[in-house]
Amino acid sequence: MNPHLDKLQSYPFEKLRQLFSQVSPNPHYSAISLGMGEPKHPTPKFIQQALIDHIDGLANYPTTVGSDALRGAIAGWLERRYGIPKLNPATQVLPVNGSREALFALTQTVVDPAAKSLVVSPNPFYQIYEGAAYLAGAEPYFVNSDPSRNFGCDYDSIPAEVWQRVALLFLCSPGNPTGAVLSLTDWENLFALSERYNFIIAADECYSEIYHGSEAPLGAMQAAHMLGLSTVERPYARLVVFSSLSKRSNVPGMRSGFVAGDAEVLKKFLLYRTYHGGAMSPAVQAASVAAWNDETHVEQNREKYRAKFAAITPLLQPHLQVELPDAGFYLWADVSQTGLSDTEFAQRLYAEYNVTVLPGSYLARDAHGINPGRNRIRMALVAETEEGLEAAQRIVQFCKSLTQ
């Protein structure tokens, strides 16, 4: 067996299942889960219809590189969304079966297992980053998010001897679970580090279209273009961006996303995926073209999230330390004022009010003396507003009961 498998921790939801294994939820309440970040808004009908209309494509083997129509639709969306020069669909764009498998596969592509490399990850983080690093023969190096920096990471704190071993840097902006968005200054600093130490940046942007302010989050390729890195001899050097339709278009079951950026990296990634077997179904490709070419449903979806967060966040603020995030569909709340740890809070809330939240410590690792997820909970506001409000009201009742 691959010995690196023994380094993997249980997934957060398996830890949650174990936490709840000896608990029976209060039968007077129906179950409400804020635990998993699975979009619950309805899938737009036109995307469903596009899938149905092209179901005959199941009779064909798909190519790993995907159709010209899909790569062109993705390149067009990137141009419109970020105001960047249109990418070459043949060399700078690659469809993938959701960002999760692509994040994992890219790590296997770029890491030399004989080099004793490091993979830098924010902390807390999406657990695929850690697993991908271990299974590629590298070690993860965690950089803790800092509430005083809007949950940003202090990359300047990483010593030069660490940077010299880095093969890959994972970034998530907007962040999971914090919702924090990197600034242009942040990107400028990271691009300079990438050039100095010759590592690849993997920018995970799957939450980019759910935001709560008037300005859309700055994207990695947008930042690179603003800094003049899109027109150099090697455009977007050492930068690859990941995005997905799952959150944007409420189609997590379609498993449809893309990787875009540095053509040299994507050439090697395509070679890896050709052997790995990462081709997308032709029917899913056709439905994806329809989704990337339409913004109306995205705007409507975003407004539903804005209304939901505007209604729910103020209800919770008198009882938990929680703020409206920059973007994404999570609330990242500090529960320390309740006198309970994050795991105790989650377990008792489930037992007494049948509401599921995810302990923040399950989403982070002990690094540099702390676990930055400890005493926090992640609440995924993915269901319709009515259900989210009911969950929030139960959480308020639970918090009030702790002070009585």
Automatic annotation (TrEMBL):
Keywords: Aminotransferase, Transferase. GO terms for molecular function: pyridoxal phosphate binding; succinyldiaminopimelate transaminase activity. Its EC number is 2.6.1.17. The keyword Transferase applies. It holds the Pfam family Aminotran_1_2. It comes from the Bacteria. GO terms for biological process: lysine biosynthetic process via diaminopimelate. CDD domains: AAT_like (cd00609). Its cofactor is pyridoxal 5'-phosphate. Residues 32-383 form the Aminotransferase class I/classII large domain. InterPro entries: Aminotransferase_I/II_large, DapC_beta/gammaproteobac, LL-DAP_aminotransferase, PyrdxlP-dep_Trfase, PyrdxlP-dep_Trfase_major, PyrdxlP-dep_Trfase_small. NCBIfam families: DapC_gpp. This is Succinyldiaminopimelate transaminase. It comes from Duganella fentianensis. The lineage of its organism: Bacteria, Pseudomonadati, Pseudomonadota, Betaproteobacteria, Burkholderiales.
